[in-house]
Amino acid sequence: MSDTDAGPTHSLAEARERDADDSLRGYRDHFSVPDGERYMDGNSLGLAPDTALATLDRVVDEWRALAIRGWEAADPDWFHYGEHLGDLLAPLVGARESEVVVANSTTVNIHTLIGTFLDTLPGTPAGPDPAADPPAVLVNDLDFPTDHYAIRAQFRQRGIDPDEQLVAVESRDGRTIDEGDIEAVLRERDDVGIVFMPSVLYRSGQLLDVDRITAAAHEHGALAGFDCAHSVGAVDHALGDAGDDDEGADFAVWCSYKYLNAGPGATAGLYVNERHHGTTPALAGWWGNDKSTQFEMRHTYDQADTAGAWQIGTVPMLSSAPIEGATELVREAGIDAVREKSLALTDYLIDLVDDRLGDDFSVGTPREHDRRGGHVAIEHPEGYRVSEALRDRGGVVDFRPPNVVRVCPAPLYTRFEDVWHVVETIREIDETGAYRDYDPRGAGVT
Known about the structure:
Layout: H1 12-21, E1 38-39, H2 50-66, H3 70-73, H4 81-93, E2 100-102, H5 106-118, E3 136-140, H6 145-157, H7 162-165, E4 166-169, H8 179-188, E5 192-198, H9 210-220, E6 223-227, E7 251-254, E8 269-272, H10 317-333, H11 335-356, E9 362-363, E10 376-379, H12 383-392, E11 395-396, E12 398-400, E13 404-407, H13 416-432
Parallel strand pairs: 1-11, 3-4, 3-5, 5-6, 6-7
Antiparallel strand pairs: 2-8, 7-8, 9-10, 10-13, 12-13
Helix pairs in contact: 1-13, 2-10, 4-10, 5-6, 8-9, 10-11, 11-13
């Protein structure tokens, strides 16, 4: 790699100076960073922190020593563990402890929450007026696919045509969603009962205005829900008091294996505003029962009066324990400081793309801080082959069709020096034409 200056500020030496001044630099030591790699894929899977491995080991030891007694005798006890983790996560999403629980998977949580709130609306079989016209759910055409799969399935289960009632806001540029277009659809259609949007678009990294969307939905008389999979742990949220009406978003879901660094397949999280506690979950299960009566084994559901009601099956302890240790680092660093470093890293990445890469490269992520999540979409006509060449040279990124190389400098373990080297490697791949040695995209994980 070259130390040659790209300008008055953009040099490897300057990147190292930034690292020396970074107040969060010590957190990198907690993570297992693969040797010889510049890891920039934390928006898909975060690296393993020693604190997560420690809490996993603790639970394994409790299993070994306590066996069945771990449900009550472990510390913290396993029986209330989903709620315990919810208490730890609540400050990271700006919610009350009773509004957050760790449970299920992200897709399952979308199923149960969309189903739950559809059942409160006129025009659904369980709603207050089943004979009314069916409600619509407003999404967008850049959503992660699982969101649409789950919503369509919930419509079908209620005898509602998803082709008619799943309404997608169209993107103007194929990269971003304009909140004004969400508001325009709400003005045009009086049947929208739920607005369900991502906090951050998975491809471009655009950060949507959760407060504005929540306020627009509530003004329309609709519920506001969010898929926060690409933001929790990297963006400071205020779900509990979002929106001009100060009521907060109605519900949200997220995963724990991206910026929360809790490991592959870690248990997901959900938020339900306290004003909806007591609403019957669409997918009821025994773990959502009130804990004081759960082992009375009644055949009638006695749901918890918190977000814990949306738990379905037994808490998967070995998939949940790493969340406790992993979130310890985020809470210790402070979500505001994490967000500040994330923005500094992505600012630096965008600047280097502008200054160091050729005209075939462009940035598809909004540049404004209040419109950007934690990753940057670098666009190139041969994005897939560029990403493959970069991986073989130690730069771990991922690709999303049609032309996006997603680069994520996760703030707790990524250095400015790492960002410099990744962009330099991309520049060399482009200038030498090395990407042409790779086949066009095939099947498999990208």
